[in-house]
Design goal:
There is one protein chain. This protein is α+β, with helices and mostly antiparallel strands. It has helices at about 1-20, 40-50, 100-105, 115-130; strands spanning about 25-35, 55, 65-75, 80-95, 100, 135-150, 155-175, 185-200, 205-215, 220-225. The strands form two sheets. It has an eight-stranded antiparallel β-barrel. The longest helix has 21 residues, at about 1-20. The protein is elongated, with a radius of gyration of 26 Å. The chain starts with a helix and ends with a strand.
Length: about 230
């Protein structure tokens, strides 16, 4: 009799734990993302217009202005579909700004033996021109977020999320070889993330996720999460 009672109690406890795992209320996430810093692009265009410059090298390189981010998130799930939380993270971006035009930097003079030499060096310059201004930004952000799950299964979730908050943003624009004015910004700005498409897949306690969107966490971000 005692053995039967123990089995019944043990079975009930296991069922309770299983139900708890499927209806976890707390979620912790860690991720990385890649996107772009739109403010850097706006500043670059201002320099191009104001000083008659052109965009930097036409050959892609590692210093191409992409913004990378890393973040931690916490969510509370009051029910199956809605979750409310907060995101804490940082991001960095750097890029080549703009260059003096070839015709303004060099003229057809005694430095070149003929027109062909001048044209050839101009082509090389346009492809591999060193930037005359450099742009670097970094930020730390904090955003309250809301997430809605369109499909919520034990091993799969399809969701959308939206976050608005603030960031401490720092921008430095420098010029080493020319007398272009430098620019420095340091202050608070709006931070946001809109991810219309997010997918989670894996176990009940640990899953991977990937999102497509726009904002401080990037156009594409991915990571892992724990359901507690």
């Amino acid at each position: 009799m005692k053995i039967h009672l123990f089995i019944v109690l043990l079975g009930g406890a296991l069922m309770t734990l299983s139900t708890y795992g499927q209806e976890s209320k707390h979620e912790i996430r860690a991720g990385v993302g890649i996107g772009d810093d739109a403010h850097i692009g706006n500043i670059q265009n201002q320099y191009i217009r104001n000083f008659n410059l052109e965009e930097g090298s036409n050959i892609p390189n590692d210093n191409s202005g992409y913004e990378t981010s890393a973040f931690l998130e916490y969510y509370y799930h009051p029910n199956k579909h809605w979750a409310f939380g907060v995101s804490l993270g940082f991001s960095t971006a750097s890029g080549e700004g703009a260059s003096v035009k070839w015709d303004d930097r060099f003229r057809l003079d005694d430095s070149f033996q003929n027109h062909i030499d001048y044209i050839w060096n101009g082509i090389v310059y346009e492809l591999w021109a060193d930037s005359d201004i450099e742009l670097h930004s970094k930020s730390e952000f904090l955003m309250p977020e809301v997430k809605y799950s369109w499909i919520a299964k034990a091993h799969f979730r399809l969701y959308s999320k939206l976050g608005f908050g603030t960031q401490h943003y720092k921008l430095d624009v420098t010029s080493d070889r020319n007398s272009f004015p430098e620019r420095h910004e340091n202050g608070l700005r709006l931070a946001y993330q809109a991810s219309p498409l997010g997918i989670e897949a894996g176990g009940e306690c640990m899953r991977g996720f990937v999102e497509l969107g726009y904002g401080k966490q990037g156009v594409l971000n991915l990571g892992i999460l724990l359901n507690l």
